[in-house]
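Quarterly update from the structural biology core.
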Amino acid sequence: MSIEGGIVVGKEILRSATKRLLRMHFEAGVGHIGGNLSVLPILLEIFHDVKLPDESVVLSKGHAAGALYVSLWTKGLLSDADLGTFHKDNTLLAGHPPATGLPEVPFATGSLGHGLPLANGLALAERLRGTSRRVFCVTSDGEWNEGSMWESLVFAAHQKLGNLCLIVDRNGLQGFGRTSEVADLEPLEQRFSAFQCDVHRVNAIEYGSLQPILRECSSDRPRVVIANTVKGRGISFMQNRMEWHYLPMSREQYDQALLEVCNG
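Predicted structure, tokenized:
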């Protein structure tokens, strides 16, 4: 399939996944929907068009676990019945990725600032084994307020972890406001470049922007993709609204969101 054909299929997968994500969060009565919607195109593209079967994905922004579960569902790795257990008692599909039970989830995450150090360990282990397998780590932008993230970049650059692919979900909002107002880190390209990373910035609101950059990583430098996204992507009353970091949907809001996705 051509890249263009793959993007067309990918956009249909994104629409289906968005509807399923909304339904899953509505039925569970839980929030964090805004950040799940922003990262969903990124995760779908990684799982469908970039990642090889034996490569690893670490979702450092673990509060977007719903998007991860739905991405696995689109690959046939979780069933519709599995998604129906989201956030329920004794489920494997908790509000943050679990420590055990899902082969595609190497670590429990969600305590922000820890995913990248863990991904570093996986990437170094692959190199020591003599493999060419890559490790993909998806972080939030607000997560870069954590010192452990920058310490991890020092390690990754020093170890020349060219098999590490780091994607930043740059939606511009975090739990207490706009990232530019809480702790402004721009220009991110210059900051990551100063840590000897191979840096790219793309528009990742829709499907298809990551493949050209992530199909191959650098030989000796961590690759960083700053993915410009929108919190609450595709839902008019959620887009760029901080409260959708937290709020669950009412029936009326869910119906409106579903209508907008179907007509979008």
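The chain has a mean pLDDT of 94.
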